Amino acid sequence: MMNNIKNNRLIWIVLLMWLCFLAPAHADSQKEGIDVQDIVFSHIQDAYTWHITEWNGKEIAISLPILVKSEERGWDMFLSHHLHHGQAHHNYYIATEGEHAGKVVEKNSRGEEVRPVDLSLTKNVCGLFLSCGILLFVVLRTAHWYKRHPNQVPSGFTGLMEMIISYIQDGVIKESIGKEEYRPFSSYLLTVFFFILINNLIGIIPVFPGGANITGNIAVTAVLAGCTFIAVNLFATKEYWKEIFWPKAPIYLKLPLPIMPFVEFFGVFTKPFALMIRLFANIMAGHTIILALTCLIFITVSMGLLVNFGMTIVSVLFCAFMNCLELLVACLQAYIFTLLSANYIGLAKVKD
């Protein structure tokens, strides 16, 4: 019985990868070869359509609205399916190479390829709306339960939420910022933790509506790091700024050349930069490795049945391991971002 269950799980994993990731490329790989780089980056980059799968050579995807403003013709709005397969619509098309590759561009009156003002609803934006909706549902559902059941011990989903919130608030936020100063920052840090966690988990799900690489987008991590930067420096104490511009160091490191003040001031910007890069790089690397391992199945098609079968087993096992590791990383990165943000805020609130 257990062997049958394990075999069924293995079959479903293979089928899931086939349908959701690279099955359409399998037929082409036998004729033209497979472009691993194109497949990997097409799945982790943002897009103007939400690809679901392909069936009988036909792409099944959700066309998203494109909203652009031309410098010559003004605003224009249309669905992204008008730009499929290199087509042009109202002089707009998706660039295939150059610095604007994968983005909507247009040709101006001088024949130059330029980027219009682009406020389109892309896959990552839709993923953000989805994750924000899930976050609101989770928070409001938990708050509604406590409102209806005062002075009762929660169980199930609400009990899990209480356990997570209590651990983050008591073990991370209070310990890092202080039991008296933590309250103004608690809501922000808890929101950041659950926002990153939900987006990381959505990115692991390979089927619609999952798969949006939100925290693997450096623009998203930059905004999160920027919020922490504002929280740290806007509400910092006088002692914090004194340590920045006149740190406790030998006088020859401060005068006549302000070596240590420069180093401390430079650190104000490197801390949020490290937050941004750490989250982006870890999530991006995990998705890239899983996709690259999956491509082994199709790369080895031309090497014979035995080699392809063996590499398929190896690829599935490694992908299963990497998905488990990605689940750990999804939780760990949300925790680390919250912990470091709380530590930075705590350092800025310390008083002599």
Record keyword descriptors for this entry.
three-stranded antiparallel sheet, 9 helices, mainly alpha, disordered N terminus, about 350 residues
Structural class: mainly alpha
The average pLDDT score comes to 83
Sequence of secondary-structure elements? HHEEEEEEEEHHHHHHH
For the largest beta-sheet, the strand count, sense and barrel status come to: 3 strands, antiparallel
What gross morphology would you assign? globular
Helix content: 55-70%
Query: Over the alpha carbons, how many angstroms does the gyration radius reach?
Result: 25 Å
Distance between the termini: 66 Å
Biggest sheet strand line-up: 4-3-8
User: Hey, roughly how much beta strand do the residues contain?
Assistant: 5-15%
Number of helices: 9
Number of DSSP E strands: 8
Which regions are unreliable across 5 or more consecutive residues at pLDDT < 50? 1-7, 14-32
Protein name: ATP synthase subunit a
Pfam families: ATP-synt_A (PF00119)
InterPro entries: ATP_synth_F0_asu, ATP_synth_F0_asu_bact/mt, F0_ATP_A_sf
Organism: Parabacteroides merdae
Would you write up a description of this structure?
- It is a multi-pass membrane protein.
- Belongs to the ATPase A chain family.
- It is found in: Cell membrane; Membrane.
- The protein has 352 residues and is mainly α.
- 63% of the residues lie in helices and 10% in strands.
- The protein is built from nine helices and eight strands.
- The protein has helices at 2-32, 36-44, 123-148, 156-177, 183-204, 218-234, 238-245, 259-299, 305-349, and strands at 49-55, 58-63, 65-70, 74-79, 92-94, 104-107, 113-114, 117-118.
- The protein has a three-stranded antiparallel beta sheet with strand order 4-3-8, with no helix packed on it. Strands 5-6-7 form a three-stranded antiparallel beta sheet, with no helix packed on it.
- Strand 1 (49-55) and strand 2 form a beta hairpin.
- Helix 4 (156-177) crosses helix 5 (183-204).
- It starts with a helix and ends with a helix.
